[in-house]
Amino acid sequence: MPSDSNTPTNSAQHCDYLIIGSGAAGLMAAHRLANHGKVILVNKSDFPDSNTFQAQGGIAGFITKDDSIESHIEDTIKAGAGLCHADVVSEVVNHGHDMVEELLQLGTPFDTENGELHLTREGGHSHRRIAHVQDSTGKAIGETLLSYVQKNPNITCLQRHMVVDLITTYKLGIFNQKNQCLGAYILPELGEVFSIAAKHVVLATGGAGKVYMYTSNPHAATGDGIAMAWRAGCPVMNLEFMQFHPTCLYNPSGSTMLLTEALRGEGAHLIDKNGRRFAFDDDERGELAPRDIVARAIDREIKKTGEDCMYLDVTHLGADKINSQFPNIQRRLLAMGLDMSKQPIPIVPAAHYMCGGVQTDVSGATAVTGLSVIGEAACTGLHGANRLASNSLLECLVMADQCAARIVQEPSTHKSVVIPAWDSSGVVPEQERVQIKQNWDEIRAIMSNYVGIVRTSERLRRARRRLFLIHEEIAEYYWQHPLSRSLLELRNLALLADLMIRSAQQRHESRGLHYTTDYPNQAKEAKDTILLPQGDNI
User: Fold this and answer.
1) 32 is annotated as an active-site residue
2) Residue 65 pLDDT
3) Cβ of 70: how many Cβ atoms within 10 Å?
4) N or C: lower Cβ tally within 10 Å for the chain?
């Protein structure tokens, strides 16, 4: 049976496939690869702590006779504001129907109506093509895949183990071959750093919403995989495109929560405090326009009126429909004293999805041999400058499937190299940890105030200047004091913030999720923003 271990160990471990992250991408990759070798699956939190388990809306791609693959492709490209890679879009979308069918066969309890899948529609989609499980689709998919992973004897599961960094030949000073990933250093919740050597490493670490003050993401979404891949030598692409979900609960006294786009797909209205539907001021599709347009509309109304929030009104849908299709959202709101069947819900946009990431193809291949990146941490060109709703779970599963197929088919180039033990010499105990919290809060405030929904060149310059000192403090602290999850996350978050700002500074236009008042028009030619590692990271 697999180990679900938190037992500290200092000894090196070995496996064929090391998978980091336990969302849909990581779980599907583990499920596929377990038939071909020993798998170790690592997650820094409990396994349900991922963006997948938070996903409400659904998975796009189930095509009915009234719809077509071509229409789904067209909607994806249109939402992506001209930056989508058409070949990638076609590759992913063409697998959508089969992927939903496989999830059904695995036991995912998708909602049905009269014996057929109940399909919903979200912003940017021209048809109902989104399979869902009420309003907690990601949780249902994640639990289905996790049940197979946990009972597979070829998979060892390590919860609450934080990856310190990837191990590569270049980092070990071996330059007589192409840079190759050899494994990773791991910090258990209790115990000392140890290494895991692997023939192939798959990063499926998810997004980076915690780089902002307000986000729909879980606390674990700190961009770890993107930062680790960059330090390992991988280029990153289109990191300026952070999607802000238009409708997250405005809750100044507590944590926010996402209000799924399926609510608007079923007819919810965006209103101001006077009940005016303002979304049509920007786009004839109103509430069903793509997320970048709707988020900017809400942001503009908040700034224009001086109010703290706008509102999402679903009262006209009726209590029966709300309770049957959105029971989990309604239950959580009722616990806060809000009843969306009787009152409009206060909302604000919040950081939701990273459309950029490590530059890869659909199979997750990177510039470093033996290292793949899949899911939200990767950037294939599918989403372009703005992700079409519910394409993310689809991308996670298709990438995992394609990644596993490539890895098991390609000839092994793995070199047997002795991995040195983690060196903690010279480390001194911490006197206080206030510096970690201070830098964490400062980074998130900088990103929210200067690198948010609407940007300017001057705000980006200010943000980068302020981050420079923070980078120096983190680097010094990292090498002088014992490692902890909060320190490692801070290190990754700071690096990711800098990469996002650098990417934004290179885009001299407004396109999709990147809107700047200094370059309000869209350039005639759509180009990806690609940053190449040059040894200047922390």
Assistant:
1) no
2) 87
3) 11
4) N
Same domain, 326 and 273: yes
Question: For residue 270, what are its two tokens?
Answer: 């965006």
Q: 183 and 225 in contact (C-beta within 8 Å)?
A: no
Q: Across the 538 residues of the chain, what is the mean pLDDT of every consecutive 10-residue run?
A: 43 90 94 97 85 77 88 94 96 93 93 86 86 86 93 95 96 90 95 94 95 87 97 98 91 76 90 95 88 86 89 95 91 93 94 95 97 97 93 95 95 78 82 83 92 94 95 89 93 97 97 95 96 68
pTM > 0.70: yes
Q: What distance in Å separates the CA atoms of residue 35 and residue 30, rounded to the nearest whole number?
A: 9
Whether residues 404 and 293 fall in one domain: no
Rounded CA gap, 75 and 58, in Å? 16
In a shared domain, residues 274 and 396: no
Per-residue model confidence (pLDDT) at position 375: 96
List all residues 6 or more positions away from 209 whose beta carbon is below 8 Å from its beta carbon: 51, 215, 216, 217, 221, 242, 350, 351, 352, 353, 354
Domain span at residue 474?
A: 434-518
Q: CA-CA distance, 500 to 230, in Å (whole number)? A: 12
Structural domains counted in the chain:
3
CATH of the domain at 150: 3.50.50.60
Residues 453 and 370 in one domain: no
278 and 371 belong to one structural domain: no
